[in-house]
Amino acid sequence: MSGETIISVDAMGGDKGPAPIIAGLARSARKDPSLQFLLHGDDEQLAKLLRRRRVLRERVDVRHTTNVVPMDIKPSRALRTGRDSSMWKALQSVADGEAKIAFSAGNTGAIVALAMLVLRRAPGVQRPAIAVHWPAENAEGHNVVLDMGADIRADADTLLQYSIMGAEYSRLAMGLAKPRVGLLNIGSEDMKGRQDLREAKDLLEGFVTEGNAGFEFLGFVEGNDITTDSVDVIVTDGFTGNIAMKASEGTAALIRKAMKDAFTHSILSRFGALFALGSFNRLRKRIDPRRVNGGVFLGLNGGVVKSHGGADALGHSSAIHLAAKMALDDFPARVAARLANLNSRSASQAHEATSGAGEA
Amino acid sequence: MSGETIISVDAMGGDKGPAPIIAGLARSARKDPSLQFLLHGDDEQLAKLLRRRRVLRERVDVRHTTNVVPMDIKPSRALRTGRDSSMWKALQSVADGEAKIAFSAGNTGAIVALAMLVLRRAPGVQRPAIAVHWPAENAEGHNVVLDMGADIRADADTLLQYSIMGAEYSRLAMGLAKPRVGLLNIGSEDMKGRQDLREAKDLLEGFVTEGNAGFEFLGFVEGNDITTDSVDVIVTDGFTGNIAMKASEGTAALIRKAMKDAFTHSILSRFGALFALGSFNRLRKRIDPRRVNGGVFLGLNGGVVKSHGGADALGHSSAIHLAAKMALDDFPARVAARLANLNSRSASQAHEATSGAGEA
Hints:
Two copies of one chain form a homodimer. Chain A is an alpha/beta fold and 360 residues long. Chain A contains twelve helices and eleven strands. In chain A, strands 3-2-1-4-11-10-5-6-9-7-8 form an eleven-stranded mixed β-sheet, sandwiched between helices. In chain A, helix 3 crosses helix 5 and helix 6 packs across helix 7. The longest helix of chain A has 29 residues. The first copy, chain A, is globular and about 60 Å long. At the A-B interface, helix 5, helix 8, helix 9 and helix 10 of A face helix 5, helix 8, helix 9 and helix 10 of B.
């Protein structure tokens, strides 16, 4: 399987079992002939699903395991009981160098916990982060937002690391040469008071001024900037990021429902909807959350792409597309190099500070 | 003007000057013949606008002032320069007992700062909060969410007070006998780790168990619950609340834009849109942010309703409707009574604890 893009897949994760995952792999395999998969999961179930997928023949290597991490498990329990599960083994194949990227649609907390254990943090990384694509009004159709809940807190140093990792990721995912990074904060001047955010702003300004940051720093941005094309990478702690994302998902769901109600309200409106079907489908496509599916874990020794547990073949396929891009680009190594830069710089600064103190 | 519902209006606040505010007042006055207004602002400008508004004749009392708090001012500066501004005087009329509720579309931070100074906190209130109506999938069409940014932090005691104030407010605004209150948190079990949130949950569970809380406590809710009908009052700190609100506003704006693009994409889609016009307008009405306009400051000696700075007559009118409801119901006094209950309870508990210690 060498020379190909190999993705290590947790075939059993997700709300609906392996069927939509295999369907997603087939979809991706048709589009990209270079893709190969290590499939971790139940041999028998997978064989049955694979029989119907001609396109996957000769392109999957099934690694049998019966242990599956349940969707409603607590991370602490996943750590105790998840050994040799399909999720664990998908990560282990990356740790062993068989694949560059692992894919799972399993429980997020469990993936974070197992990935930290199996892959471990990349050198110099304080806290890994989850980055997602957030629908936005720019050419790419989305921005990058992190952290989405790998951790509930982030101090100034961590927010600087998130910025570096997020910028590197947006270079890969969106093809931007010099991404614009913003720190998420609230509007009023006097409210811009959270000490950690002001510290992070100073730190980031200093870092960017030194050059070689590879990104532009915009300072503070607000919640309503996320969907605009005025910023590419939005950085925040995992608590705030997770709540902003879920609140926005709720709003989108409410509007989708209102749209459906409005267009099935009467005979006339059904008739109108029929005429507007093309526009309707165009719109649905644009705000379809499945097309920007895929959270990415940054800051580990190896890449992990998380697909939505309830996703269908299309959703998983778009997450796999992302995983393939990351594998092809040797993305984890690139992020590690960026952070190594930061650390050698901090180390030399610390050294200067120490020698300075010595001279005083 | 006695016997009527009197609202004290900052006629000069907002992005577009007094014109849309006067238009909003006229709209409200037509609907509710009991409304009377104290108008604070520039005599000459207001006289010109009032000349065209027959319905407001005999129902406004103009109090001349030329000082206006600018929209882009910092709260600290508003405190230094805002004395005798239209905003200040609108609040002062409430402090003096001329009106029960003040209305302003000015800078939020400035209103918070001036209201704290002029009206002061109600007895026993640690931190006032801003509550808003959040579009939701229930019969009322919205839930209540607080705090939206009166303060950037909230400890467990403050979150308990927010819950009490928010529940009382939802009784008024949504007519609920026993509102369901939820604490905003993030999903994963192990992530539910923020100490202050776990403390607040314990505190609220204890408070509700004692009876007489007047609301049901649901425990933790997530961001995507806000728009559902599974909860009525969502409680969080002002930082998180503000970011969740603005992120959701951004998402709604993005979808509105995508909708417009989709339906003007081709001749056929324009034709379809024409047929679907009725559905379209119904939909627009349902997701129209102007119809749920109005943030409310809770926990002061007197009520303050904040309208959106960029609102038009319809938006202001819906905020004025809210203000009228609060005035009629003597809402600030009701909230004060609820909190006085809490405080006498805490005081007696503290007393018990002290006497307990004395006996030991």
